[in-house]
Amino acid sequence: MEYKIFGCKTNKYFTDRWAESPILDGKEGVFISSCVVTDKAKSKWVRFAKQKLKTLQSWEKLYLSGCGSLKEGEIDTDFYDIYPELVTFRHKIELLPEDPGDSHHSSSLLEGERIKKDNIPPRLLLGEGAGGWGANLKSRLQKATVLWTGLHTKKFIVVQTGCDNFCTFCLTVQARGRHKSRTSEDIITEINTFVASGGKEVVLTGTNLGAWWAGSSEDIADSRFPELLEEILAKTSIERLRVSSLGVEFVDQRLMGLFRKSRISAYIHLSIQSGSDSILRAMNRHYDRAKLLQVLSGLQSLKREDGVHINIGADLIVWFPGETETDFDDTFGLIQTYGITQLHAFPFSPHKEHYSVPAGKFPHQIDESTKTDRLNRLLCEWDTAKDQFLRENDKKHFHVLVEGKWVGWTENYIECTPSNFTPETGSIFEKRTIVRWKFTYIK
Fold first, then answer.
1. Which of 77, 100, 229, 308 can bridge 21 by disulfide, Cβ–Cβ 3.0-4.6 Å?
2. What's the domain count of the chain?
3. Which residues fall within 8 angstroms of residue 69, CB to CB, at 6 or more apart?
4. Within this chain, do residues 140 and 78 fall inside the same structural domain, yes or no?
């Protein structure tokens, strides 16, 4: 089976679960984890799928998972209406749910049926029910250990999925459905199994990660995500714990304080989207500029117990409808002022193909020349911020987690190569080890 992943860390995690699952044992063809974050992202996997479908042998199939095959967390029974360019290949396509624990909902059973949705309870736990995440977890992880051993230094672990926020630019709530959380017991078991196989780093991820264990992702005060981090530190020996993209609204003093600890990676990636109050309101985000600046200022001044300078990353959306030059400047200024050195800058996608989002119908869509100018300015400022961060870390010593031949990452997410790091006397560069090396700034 060939595996191809498009999109986010959540897709990477569930693809690993499909690869570990016996469900696809003996099957031949190609597995695609699809993404719908923008029209460009959709066109990439559709184009790849069509190319593969034309070359499949009669006994092979294309197995499709990820957001492209889903609606409200279930197989989309209108899939071929939404993707008419794939309808001629439907005999070669098997639509799959996101999680193999829900594989009884495959398209072969849903063909011609309409799923009847029951009322969703306030908190729906991932893994509940037969075949779910919690079913036979230890036995499934034992098989996974065989696959992990010698292959992976780090592992992505989804702790929640779905979202209830209905941001006006986002398709996630349409595809993955409502916010759901895994139990801490399942998460701890998975981490300890990975550690036993030799794993060094775990990256916690999810659709709206900071909402873990809240009844709804809109119930910000009910989040128990800091509690989860504390429990992982107490009940596992994972050497490095990294947190994936966090909503700004969930970063409070308790959570920020945990980033002082040396076992938590000195890198935080924030789902910022915009620095403008008016644009944040139009996006239906759950924080304002004042909260954003409070969080960024707190992180910038954070003093860690290991003395490492924390690295800040961000998701930003540029060209949102109605974005004025002043709105753009509010976002632009965040990069240099707060040292944002890891940037995912997404162009706003109106989703004209296959799906729609509310903001796609907003007035004052941005023209192409303005888009190009703003993107170039944003990338130039980002390059300046990265350069400044690396200069500040020149000649400092770091613990490098080696992930491949001559490739690794420091605790604050600086990439390590033979050209910019010097090993201390006696240290070796061997995969799956953490070594102490000195960084040298190179322009």
1. 100
2. 3
3. 34, 75, 76, 79, 95, 96, 97, 107
4. no
Are residues 24 and 95 located together in one domain of the fold?
yes
Residue 416: partners with Cβ closer than 8 Å, 6 or more residues away? 398, 400, 402, 407, 408, 409, 410, 437, 439
For residues 81 and 162, membership in a common domain is answered with: no
Least confident range of 84-88, 104-108, 158-162:
104-108
Residue 423 pLDDT grade (very low, low, confident, very high; cuts 50, 70, 90): confident
Distance CA 207, CA 164 (A): 10
39 shares a domain with 153: no
Q: Is the Cβ–Cβ distance between 138 and 189 less than 8 Å?
A: yes
Domain limits at 401?
397-439
Distance in angstroms (rounded) separating the CA atoms of residues 66 and 10: 9
DSSP state letters, 24-60: GTT--EEEEEE--SSHHHHHHHHHHHHHHHTT--TT-
CA distance 38 to 42: 6
For residue 373, the surrounding DSSP H or E stretch is helix 368-392
Q: What is the pTM of this model?
A: 0.85
Looking at per-residue pLDDT, the higher value among 58 and 116 belongs to 58
Same domain, 130 and 6: no
Tokens of 101: 């624990």
235: closest CA among 227, 224, 244? 227
pLDDT tens figures, 387-414: 999 999 999 999 988 887 667 899 999 9
Same domain, 105 and 132: no
CATH for 237: 3.80.30.20
